[in-house]
Specification:
It contains five helices and three strands. It is mainly alpha-helical. Helix 1 packs parallel to helix 5 and helix 2 runs antiparallel to helix 3.
């Protein structure tokens, strides 16, 4: 499938099919970054804290376990979208994604990429930023009043974010996201599996 195409999955899509698609997308982004010479892995752990802050009231059409899994996915998306917001725009997310948010530390000004592939990298970062922001909105809309608030995020846990290391950090976050979704996808309803498969 070409990188610009979107595969629409039916509700009967198997977990194996979704994992295969997720792995393919991770490899496509990894190959792009490797082609740019960005194969290092960034260090850093404990980027998110305070995940217990919530505005949740159980949705009657989903089990508590499903809500928990979707909120886990939302927390991963909060981290990714916040990171891309800073490196692409130099500011935090806005709107409902930041309502009652925990504090965000260690952000950066918008990064300026240089070199032969500078425009391609900039375009890719902006595209991923809009994708991640839309994923947050989609999950928040799906969860409704059961959506957790964005936790405290310390982007400084990656060290100082620069144009030199940003793609290595992005690669790490993409791998974390795909691994997280692959881990929870078997516990979700078929419609939620379809949604997360398309996000992956």
């Amino acid at each position: 499938m070409a990188s610009k195409e979107i595969e629409i999955l039916g509700p009967a899509a198997s977990v194996g099919k979704l994992k295969k698609i997720a792995a393919g997308h991770a490899l496509n982004r990894r190959h792009f970054m490797a082609a740019l010479g960005m194969t290092g892995v960034a260090a850093g752990a404990g980027m998110m804290s305070g995940c217990s802050t919530s505005n949740s009231v159980a949705v009657t059409t989903a089990s508590t376990a499903q809500i928990d899994m979707l909120n886990f996915a939302l927390n991963v998306k909060y981290l990714q979208a916040t990171f891309y917001s800073f490196i692409a725009k130099g500011t935090d997310l806005t709107g409902s994604a930041v309502t009652n948010s925990g504090p965000i530390t260690g952000g950066t000004a918008a990064l300026t990429f240089t070199g032969v592939n500078a425009q391609q990298i900039t375009d890719m970062v902006n595209e991923i930023y809009y994708d991640e922001k839309n994923h947050v909105s989609t999950l928040m809309s799906l969860l409704g009043i059961s959506a957790v608030f964005r936790p405290a995020i310390n982007l400084g846990g990656f060290g100082t974010i620069t144009a030199t290391n940003a793609l290595s950090i992005a690669r790490l976050l993409e791998d974390v996201g795909v691994t997280a979704y692959a881990g929870i996808i078997g516990s979700l309803s078929s419609s939620d599996i379809t949604l997360l498969g398309q996000i992956m």
